[in-house]
Amino acid sequence: MRLFRLATAFFLAAGIGAAHAGGINDLTGSEATSGLKEALVKGADYAVSSLGKENGFLGNKKVKIPLPDSLKTVEKGMKAIGMGKQADELVATMNHAAEKAVVQAKPILLDAVKQMSVDDAKGILTGGEDSVTKFFKKSTSDQLVEKFMPIVKEATRKVKLADKYNKFAGQGAKLGLVDKEDADLDTYVTHKAMDGLFLMIAEKEKEIRKNPVGAGSDLLKKVFGSLG
Q1: Strand, helix or coil at 144?
Q2: Who has the most CB within 10 Å: 27, 79, 103, 210?
Q3: Any residues with CB less than 8 A from the CB of 221 and at least 6 apart, and which?
Q4: Are 201 and 39 contacting, i.e. CB atoms less than 8 angstroms apart?
Q5: pLDDT tens sequence across 189-205
Q6: More confident residue, 78 or 136
Q7: Which residues of 75-86 are buried (b: 16+ CB within 10 A; e: fewer)?
Q8: pTM to 2 decimal places
């Protein structure tokens, strides 16, 4: 009941209307917590299944990983001298590496759900439409980097263009033309893979908040419907 009381008090303190508060008062603490966890799991499942498959990144314009903007001129130059295939291969390799890495995210995301604190739950309940995404970023980013990096390195290790990229981008970083974190291909791909993962989680969260009735769960309908 503690979570329920905290959430209700927070809503009232924030000036949310009586109709909304009334909906929340119909929830038990257990329902609120369970509903939140179900939403978190749905977001994680959706993101991993959408991205952790062949062309999950490459075929999705929202998350496709391009060369850094500072290297776009190099990409154009390669294509101008008939090396477009090599440039495309590098982009494809980066995206396929991200796909392989994202598959490993699910257990980390689900563990974060299990470890969710009362304060976390309150923040998600009373936060904006990206509160679930913020929760995952805060609780899983370090672990995701640790998990993703070796997978990305293995996926790019055999591609000689990766070495060329790192060499060129490294020089660009020294000249201030390339961000330091973009100067290493593996670091760049790892962070872009995480960006894509969180973006897809955010999409699912917005969908549930916008249409809890269509979420496919009576509990989600009740919890997020009370916030509408």
Answers
A1: helix
A2: 27
A3: 212, 213, 215
A4: no
A5: 999 999 999 999 988 87
A6: 136
A7: beebeeeeeeee
A8: 0.74
The predicted structure's pLDDT at residue 15? 33
Look at 208 and 50; give whichever has higher pLDDT: 50
CA distances (Å), 118 to each of 113, 121, 123, 217, in order? 12, 5, 9, 23
**CB-based contacts of 37, cutoff 8 Å, min separation 6:** 113, 116
Full DSSP string of 40-104? HHHHHHHHHHHHSSTTTTTT-TTT-----GGGHHHHHHHHHTT-HHHHHHHHHHHHHHHHHHHTT
Helices and strands per DSSP (H, E), number in the chain = 11, 0
State the chain's mean pLDDT as an integer: 75
DSSP code per residue over 183-225: SSHHHHHHHHHHHHHHHHHHHHHHHHHH-GGGGS-HHHHHHHH
Q: Note whether 25 and 8 are within 8 A (CB).
A: yes
Report residue 147 as tokens.
Answer: 């998990």
Report whether 188 contacts 173 (CB < 8 A).
no
* Cβ proximity of 183 and 166 under 8 Å: yes
**Structure tokens that stand for 154 in this block:** 């293995």
Say how many CA atoms lie within 13 Å of 131 toward its Cβ.
17
